[in-house]
Design a protein that fits this description.
The chain has about 90 residues and is of the alpha+beta class. The chain has 2 helices and 4 strands; from the N terminus they run βαβαββ. A two-stranded parallel ribbon has the order 1-2. Strands 3-4 form a two-stranded antiparallel ribbon.
């Protein structure tokens, strides 16, 4: 059974901040782990670097505007398949 954790925008912002520190090898940095989190409705800042972030079974927005913004397909991380746009 997958337990989904719902987080606030403030919690997301803190995770992103700590992940940036982790990417820069700062001692207080922490790798972002969004496993089993419901991230729908939350906003990721433009230009955020999420290399190395973990999205195992995370629920993300399927908003087509995100696809246009990031110019790449949005995936359903529950099934790991490209979402049907129909």
């Amino acid at each position: 059974m997958i337990i989904v954790k719902i987080i606030t925008q403030e919690e997301l912002n803190e995770i992103i901040k700590l992940h940036g520190k982790w990417l820069n090898n700062e001692k207080d940095g922490i790798q972002a782990d969004f496993s089993n989190m419901d991230l729908t409705g939350l906003s990721f800042p433009d230009g955020v670097d999420l290399r190395g972030a973990i999205f195992q079974d995370a629920a993300l927005s399927t908003d087509q505007d995100l696809e246009r913004k990031y110019q790449q397909p949005i995936f359903d991380f529950y099934t790991r398949r490209k979402l049907d746009k129909n």
